[in-house]
C-alpha cells in the first residue's frame, strides 16, 4: 500500500494533540507546544505504512520535520536544522551534552486512576552506526516533574538502550529499507508508566531533541488514546531452563478498571490469536494460550531478554507491558561442586548445579541467572541484578546488591536480601512472608491456595488462581488476588487492592485505600480513611467505613452499607431498581432525602453523616431500596 496515504497534520494545536493522545480515565485541562511547528503533528492512516507505525492515528514529535518519518528509506542521514528549542535544561541533563531542535509538548490533566500509562515508538536515523558512540538523541518524559522511564535496560528511550545487541527483541533494523519509514531503525511499541494523583491536576511533559549536533533526526510516535489510567499492563519476570518450557499468566497482575473482555492482542508488536507461535530474535519461542497465558520455550544459551505484549479491552482501550525472560543452563557435573562464574563443566555450561547433590554457587558481579537443581544448595548472587532458583531441596539463596529475583519451590528454602539494596522479588510455590529488604511477592500457579504476607515496606503482592489470603501489613502496598475467592487485607498505609476474578473479600484497614473488586460477587470494606471502593462486575457488598469515601457500583444488584459516624460519602452508579442501601443503626425517621445537583443527598444521624448519590436521578428515589438494620451485614 502506498506510503502517501500516511498523513501528517502539522497545523494541529497543542490541545488537539493532547486530546488525541489521552484516553480513558483522563480529562485534559490544558496543553502547550514549544518548538518548530513542522516538528509536531497528528498522524493518520498509520495502517497504510504497515507495522512500522504503532497505530492508525496518534501524535508525532520530531527533531526534524515530522513528515520526514514517512518512507521509503532513501537516505541514511536525514536531518533538518529546525527552529526548535536549543539547550533545554532537562534534555541536556538526560543527554549529558548540549541538545538542539527540541520539540516539547506539555499538558495538564485530571486522572481517575493512580497509574498513568502511555504507548509509543522511537525511530532514529542514528541507528546503527552511532550506537554507543556518544550521539544519543535525548528523550525526556516527566510526570509531575519526575522522570518517567522505561523499566528495561538503563531506562532511557535511546539508540544505546534498544538496538541489535541490547533489548534486541524490541528493535527493528531498517538499514535495508524493509519498513516503510525513512528512519534507519525503529522500536516496537514501548510503554512508560508513572504514578499520578487521582482527582487532581497533574502535569505531563514529553520532549525529544538532537544531542551533540543538530543532524540525524529522531522521532517519537505516540499512540492515540494510549495515555490513560483505566487499563494497565504490568511487567512480568519469568525463569525458564535452556530449551525448557514454562507457562505464565500475563494478565494475572494487570490492572483493569471496569473494563470487559481484556485479552492479549500482540506479542512483540505482532498481532496474535490463541494458538499462534512467534520466535523472538533472541531465540525464545512464545505461544499464546487462552486466558491471558503464554507458553515460553527457552533458547539454547544463558540469557536475560525482554519482549513486549499488548492487551486490549472490548471498548478499544489498550496498553503494553514488558516480559523479562531469564534462561539458565541446567546440567551439572557429578560430585559436590563449588561453582563460580566462569567455571566450565564437562558439558561446557557455565553457572549451573543440577547434578542432584548439594552445591555452592557464587555469581559475584554481573547480572547472573543461577539455577541449582536438586540437592540442598547455597546460592550467592553477589552484585548485579540476579535470578536465583535453588530447584528441589532445602536451599539458601542470598541475592546481595542489585534488583534480584528469587524462586521458592521447597518449604525448606530460605531467602535473604541485603536490605535497602535494589528492588527484590520472591516468586513462591508455597505460602511465604516477606523478610526485610524484599519488595514483591508473587504466588506461582500451583494447584493450591496460599498465603502471601508483606513486610513494613511498600510491597506488591500477587496471588494465583486459587483461594489465597494476602496481607499487606504496613506501607503503601499493592495487592492483586488473581483468580479464586481471595481475602486481601491492606493493613496500615494507603494501599491499592485489586480482587480481580472470584468472590473476594477486600479489607482496606487503616489509610486512604483504593479497592477494586473485579469480577465476581465481592465484599469490600474500606475501614478507616478516605477510601475509593469499586465493586466491578457482580453483586457486590461495599462498606465504606469511617472517613469520607467514594463507592462505585455498576447496577448489578450491589449493596452499599453505611453506619453512624461514617462521614460524608459519595456513591456513584447506584440504581434504585437493582441496588440496596443499608443504614445500620439508623431509624427510617432519622433520614432526609433531597435533590442534590444531578443526583440526590441522603442525610442521617446527628453527626453530619451524609451520602451523595451523585449519578442517580432524584425522580427514581424508592424508599423500598433502603434497609434499616441494627447490624452491619
Strand content: 35-45%
Global geometry: globular
**What gyration radius follows from the Cα positions, in whole Å?**
26 Å
The overall pLDDT average reads: 88
The parts where pLDDT drops under 50 for at least 5 residues are: 330-357
State the strand order across the main sheet: 27-29-31-33-35-37-39-41-43-45-47-49-53-52-51
Helix content: under 10%
> How does the helix and strand content classify structurally?
mainly beta
GO molecular function, one term: toxin activity
Organism: Roseicyclus persicicus
GO cellular component, one term: extracellular region
InterPro entries: Choice_anch_L, Hemolysin-typ_Ca-bd_CS, Hemolysn_Ca-bd, RTX_toxin/Mannuronan_C5-epim, RTX_toxin_determinant-A, Serralysin-like_metalloprot_C
Notes on the protein architecture:
The structure is a single chain. Among the domains are: 3-223, no CATH class; 231-328, Immunoglobulins (Immunoglobulin-like), CATH 2.60.40; 553-633, no CATH class. It contains two helices and 54 strands. A 15-stranded mixed beta sheet has the order 27-29-31-33-35-37-39-41-43-45-47-49-53-52-51, with no helix packed on it. The protein is globular, with a radius of gyration of 26 Å. Helices cover 2% and strands 38% of the residues. A hairpin with a 2-residue loop joins β18 (263-267) and β19. It has 633 residues and is an all-beta fold. GO terms for molecular function: calcium ion binding; toxin activity. One of its GO terms (cellular component) is extracellular region. This is Calcium-binding protein. Keywords: Membrane, Repeat, Secreted, Toxin, Virulence. Pfam families: HemolysinCabind (PF00353).
Amino acid at each position: 500500500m502506498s506510503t502517501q496515504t500516511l498523513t501528517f497534520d502539522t497545523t494541529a494545536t497543542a490541545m488537539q494533540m493532547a486530546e488525541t493522545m489521552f484516553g480513558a480515565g483522563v480529562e485534559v485541562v490544558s496543553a502547550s507546544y514549544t518548538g518548530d511547528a513542522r516538528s509536531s503533528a497528528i498522524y493518520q492512516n498509520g495502517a497504510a505504512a504497515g507495522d512500522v507505525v504503532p497505530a492508525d492515528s496518534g501524535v508525532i514529535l520530531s527533531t526534524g520535520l515530522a513528515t520526514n518519518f514517512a518512507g521509503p528509506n532513501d537516505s541514511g542521514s536525514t536531518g533538518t536544522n529546525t527552529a526548535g528549542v536549543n539547550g533545554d535544561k532537562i534534555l541536556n541533563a538526560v543527554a549529558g551534552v548540549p541538545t538542539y531542535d527540541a520539540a516539547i509538548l506539555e499538558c495538564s490533566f485530571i486522572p481517575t486512576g493512580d497509574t498513568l500509562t502511555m504507548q509509543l515508538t522511537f525511530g532514529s536515523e542514528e541507528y546503527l552506526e552511532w550506537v554507543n558512540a556518544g550521539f544519543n538523541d535525548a528523550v525526556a518524559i516527566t510526570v509531575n516533574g519526575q522522570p518517567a522511564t522505561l523499566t528495561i535496560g538503563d531506562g532511557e528511550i535511546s539508540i544505546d538502550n534498544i538496538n541489535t545487541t541490547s533489548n534486541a527483541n524490541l528493535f527493528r533494523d531498517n538499514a535495508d529499507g524493509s519498513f516503510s519509514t525513512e528512519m534507519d531503525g525503529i522500536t516496537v511499541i514501548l510503554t512508560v508508566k508513572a504514578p499520578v494523583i487521582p482527582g487532581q491536576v497533574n502535569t505531563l511533559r514529553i520532549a525529544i531533541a538532537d544531542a551533540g549536533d543538530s543532524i540525524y533526526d529522531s522521532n517519537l510516535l505516540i499512540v492515540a488514546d494510549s495515555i490513560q489510567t483505566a487499563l494497565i499492563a504490568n511487567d512480568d519476570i519469568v525463569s525458564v531452563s535452556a530449551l525448557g518450557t514454562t507457562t505464565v499468566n500475563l494478565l494475572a497482575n494487570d490492572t483493569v478498571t471496569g473494563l470487559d473482555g481484556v485479552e492479549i492482542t500482540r506479542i512483540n508488536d505482532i498481532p496474535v490469536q490463541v494458538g499462534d507461535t512467534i520466535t523472538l530474535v533472541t531465540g525464545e519461542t512464545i505461544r499464546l494460550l487462552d486466558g491471558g497465558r503464554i507458553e515460553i520455550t527457552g533458547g539454547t544459551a544463558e540469557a536475560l531478554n525482554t519482549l513486549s505484549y499488548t492487551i486490549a479491552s472490548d471498548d478499544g482501550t489498550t496498553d503494553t507491558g514488558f516480559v523479562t525472560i531469564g534462561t539458565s543452563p541446567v546440567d551439572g557435573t557429578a560430585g559436590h561442586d563449588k561453582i563460580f562464574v566462569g567455571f566450565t563443566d564437562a558439558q561446557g555450561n557455565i553457572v549451573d548445579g543440577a547434578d542432584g547433590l548439594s552445591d555452592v554457587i557464587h555469581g559475584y558481579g554481573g547480572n547472573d541467572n543461577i539455577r541449582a537443581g536438586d540437592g540442598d544448595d547455597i546460592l550467592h548472587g553477589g552484585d548485579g541484578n540476579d535470578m536465583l532458583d535453588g530447584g528441589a531441596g532445602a536451599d539458601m539463596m542470598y541475592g546481595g546488591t542489585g534488583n534480584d529475583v528469587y524462586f521458592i519451590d521447597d518449604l525448606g528454602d530460605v531467602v535473604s536480601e541485603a536490605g535497602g539494596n535494589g528492588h527484590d522479588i520472591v516468586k513462591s510455590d508455597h505460602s511465604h512472608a516477606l523478610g526485610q529488604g524484599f519488595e514483591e511477592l508473587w504466588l506461582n500457579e500451583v494447584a493450591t491456595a496460599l498465603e502471601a504476607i508483606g513486610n513494613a515496606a511498600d510491597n506488591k503482592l500477587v496471588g494465583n488462581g486459587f483461594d489465597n489470603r494476602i496481607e499487606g501489613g504496613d506501607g503503601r502496598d499493592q495487592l492483586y488476588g488473581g483468580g479464586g475467592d481471595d481475602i486481601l487485607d491492606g493493613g496500615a498505609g494507603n494501599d491499592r487492592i485489586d480482587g480481580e476474578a472470584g468472590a473476594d473479600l477486600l479489607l482496606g484497614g487503616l489509610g486512604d485505600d483504593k479497592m477494586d473488586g473485579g469480577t465476581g460477587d465481592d465484599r469490600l470494606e474500606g475501614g478507616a480513611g478516605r477510601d475509593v471502593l469499586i465493586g466491578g462486575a457482580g453483586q457486590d457488598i461495599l462498606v465504606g467505613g469511617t472517613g469520607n469515601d467514594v463507592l462505585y457500583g455498576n447496577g448489578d444488584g450491589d449493596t452499599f452499607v453505611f453506619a453512624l459516624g461514617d462521614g460524608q460519602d459519595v456513591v456513584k452508579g447506584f440504581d434504585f431498581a437493582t441496588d440496596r442501601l443499608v443504614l445500620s443503626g439508623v431509624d427510617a425517621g432519622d433520614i432526609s432525602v433531597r435533590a442534590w445537583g444531578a443526583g440526590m443527598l441522603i442525610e442521617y444521624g446527628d453527626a453530619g453523616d451524609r451520602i451523595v448519590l451523585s449519578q442517580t436521578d432524584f425522580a427514581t428515589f424508592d424508599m423500598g431500596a433502603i434497609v434499616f438494620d441494627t447490624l452491619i451485614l
